[in-house]
Amino acid sequence: MSNELNDVVVIDxxxxxxxxxxxxxxxxxxxxxxxxxxxxxALIARNPAVxxxxxxxxxxxxxxxxxxxxxxxxxxxxxxxxWGWEIPGCSIDRMCASGLTAxxxxxxxxxxxxxxxxxxxxxxxxxxxxxxxxxxxxxxxEELLGGPSAFNMGMTAENIHDRCPEFTKEMADAYALACQQxxxxxxxxxxxxxMIIPVEVELADGAKMMADSDQQPRPDTSxxxxxxxxxxxxxxxxxxxxxxxxxxxxxxxxxxLMNRSKADELNLRxxxxxxxxxxxxxxxxxxxxxxxxxxxxxxxxxxxxxDDIDLIEINxxxxxxxxxxxDRFGLKPDDPRVNKWGGAIAxxxxxxxxxxxxVAFLCGLFKENPHARYGLTTMCVxxxxxxxxxxxxxx
Length: 395
Ligand SMILES: CC(C)(COP(=O)(O)OP(=O)(O)OC[C@H]1O[C@@H](n2cnc3c(N)ncnc32)[C@H](O)[C@@H]1OP(=O)(O)O)[C@@H](O)C(=O)NCCC(=O)NCCS
Description:
α1 (32-46) packs across α2 (73-80) and α3 (98-111) packs across α12. It contains 12 helices and 12 strands. It is α+β, with helices and mostly antiparallel strands. Coenzyme A binds next to α5 and α7.
């Protein structure tokens, strides 16, 4: 094996529609694994040069690794796809960035020569496994994480508003409205069609349907409607609401990663090339600020500045946290490079599936913007982490 890193490329990326968590959600009667299996089958069907036996690993991010999401779901997915026992698999937890980290491990496996072709993704069924379900924090965790708010993501967003009063509720609502509008435009222009793989589901009343479109977006959102919502995380003076936060969702997303020379050998056209990745840690009580140091780190590793980045996909856990990121890089809230097709405030945030969704969005955006050279995917993580990856357009 040589000491040179292999060039790693994304061949394809697919996802399920994102459903609302809970009994009214499209996936209420569907297990987490059943969200993933149609996706990996679709990757093979869409890329006939790739055979299941070429897949050297199945790396899945999943935050809550209990019940149907436990027992190493990454290993179970190729088995449930009936690809045999030969394809290994594992599950990764970095909370919201579990899926992006799964992709990160996949990238480094290929770059380092451990594999030439693998799948990496993320899944979260927040309806069946709610945030924090069956968790048993260490008795000293609260003290060492900085207080009880570190355990409640909505409170960490309120903390950012406290620390940075320049980001007002009105700004957060205006950001959320713009997100809903961009999302509505992208959906009606058909931008989601190529990436969403329909999944057959049974609804609460027993009726069957194909789940092929996102359930969370609210295209009729208005600034007046947002202004009237109650702040669930702080009764008095709270600024974070259901309207300017991401929701509770079920969904999965997966990407096919390959050594560039393997892609050439198979005559496959890569969508984008990995440039650099970085993770960073911050005060857990303001976890949403962490994409800033993670992005500073990754830009340095790539030898680039924010001016070189043509497309930015930031996971909007909360509007205030996206506003903070943009401000710290000197970008306006409506910078046209940012979340062109909308973001998690509208589509929802099925935790581990969200990082791969950013990657899937960037693949699509690179295709329709062939002159864009570099793109960034970045997200914040509970317990105070950020994860950022820079990619180069292959179109
Ligand atoms: C904020 C949160 C508590 C809201 O949960 P919820 O109450 O189940 O959310 P809903 O979708 O039912 O919305 C609540 C209300 O706001 C309304 N609403 C939501 N978005 C709206 C919008 N854009 N415009 C107008 N009204 C809106 C809903 O209609 C609903 O009204 P109703 O109670 O009259 O039916 C939940 O989404 C949450 O916890 N989000 C953060 C998730 C998180 O922490 N993720 C990890 C990030 S690190």
